[in-house]
Amino acid sequence: MGVPEKIKEIEEEMKKTQKNKHTEHHMGLLKAKLAKLRADVERSGGGKGGGQSFEVKKAGAATIVLIGLPSVGKSTILNRLTNAKSKVAAYAFTTLTVVPGIMRLNGADIQILDLPGIISGASSGKGRGKRVLSVARNADLVLLVLDVFQPGQVQLLRDELQAMGIRLDQKRPDVVVTRADKGGTAITSTVKLTRLSQKTIKGIMEIYGVSNASIIIRDDITDDQLIDVMAGNRRYVPSLTVLNKVDLVNQEYLGAAKKQLGNYVPLSAEKDVNMEVLRDRIWATLDFIRIYLKPRDRGPDMEHPLILPSGSTLYDVCKRIHPKFGEDAKYALVIGSSVKFEGQRVGLDHIPNDKDIVTIVK
Ligand SMILES: Nc1nc2c(ncn2[C@@H]2O[C@H](COP(=O)(O)OP(=O)(O)O)[C@@H](O)[C@H]2O)c(=O)[nH]1
Ligand SMILES: [Mg+2]
Predict the structure, then answer these.
(1) Of 132, 143, 81, 87, which Cα lies nearest the Cα of 109?
(2) Measuring from atom 10 of ligand 1, which residue has the nearest CA?
(3) Which residues have CB under 8 Å from 214's CB, separation 6+?
């Protein structure tokens, strides 16, 4: 039996199997086998539509991609947010390649990539879908762009990204697997595992060829999450849902959409409605801090902040200035909300807040 037949067989069996406590273990193993076989097909180049991605050079502090069906207004959004001029038209498949633009946001340059629209089946290669979706693997934020009359398409977008190994708005599971030569598998968990039995953990690991290892689990993970860990090539990317063309509907309609979509940004890229709200939401989701550097003998440079992920230390700030800078740095003087008084002396392990003014002392 070939791999495609095996995949079909497992899919059939999963459809037939009722989901309950008694079938949990069996289903977990089936899911793992399926994920493994699909990855094998992918690796052997058997997937349709070519595996390679569009060539895009990353630029700026972060990269955002616009994902949506054709004609929802992705190119119009890019043109509004950035200096780019992506072709806009009333017919589908106007955009045939990646069009990059740069958005200046709170002193940071943010790269935004306009992509061709995707359609159902994109992750299995339809309409160059794989190439489009794989660009999202390297993104720091995905904007799921919807037409105001098609909010239900959000599920299709999520499903296609999911199938490409992209996990939207999920935390990377805190699981560490260390392989060994012998001795079987030792499971350690620091939390109570309520959704996965020891037997299923071992079974899933064995499907991935790991039968001697130690595994440390610090989250109450599901079988899907363990499969993601074992597969090893998953991307964890935050997303924002954008409902575009809201100029065409009334408030009542938007209230109903909220029930379906949960949290979303209502937008009209064409009529310039809520673009500032979108920019704010993007900034909040990227979760960056701005650090203003101040030489000892001069005022701070308020024009060009360093942009770092929140939670970065002053040592990270040094490395951003120059990869070797941290070696000579001794301590820092900080003005801002992360310290008790102005000009407080702190070590390089100090975690600064957004808008702190920092002097690094060698
Ligand atoms: N009414 C309205 N039309 C829009 C809006 N944004 C884009 N459009 C129109 O929708 C069509 C498709 O836009 P485009 O940006 O090319 O969509 P893309 O295929 O997703 O890149 C064009 O005719 C746009 O003028 C909007 O906010 N409101
Ligand atoms: Mg377009």
Answers:
(1) 81
(2) 73
(3) 177, 178, 180, 185, 186, 188
Is residue 99 within 6 Å of ligand 1 at its C-beta?
no
Q: What is the DSSP letter of 116?
A: -
Distance CA 74, CA 169 (A): 21
Which residue has a Cα nearest atom 26 of ligand 1?
Answer: 245
How many Å apart are CA 99 and CA 110, to the nearest integer?
14
Domains, the chain, in order of start with CATH, read: 3-46+173-231 (no CATH), 62-170+235-281 (3.40.50.300), 288-361 (3.10.20.30)
Residue type, position 247, single letter: D
pLDDT digits (tens, 9 = 90+) for 191-246: 999 999 999 999 999 999 999 999 999 999 999 999 999 999 999 999 999 999 99
> Cβ of 257: how many Cβ atoms within 10 Å?
19
Q: Which of 237, 358, 360, 352 is nearest to 289 (CA)?
A: 352
- Max distance between CA atoms of the chain, in angstroms, equals 75
CA of 94 to the centre of ligand 2 (A): 5
Q: Note the pLDDT tens digit of each residue in 135-168.
A: 899 999 999 999 999 999 999 999 999 999 999 9
72 Cβ inside 6 Å of ligand 1:
yes
Three-class DSSP category at 322:
coil
Question: Using CA positions, which residue lies closest to atom 23 of ligand 1?
Answer: 90
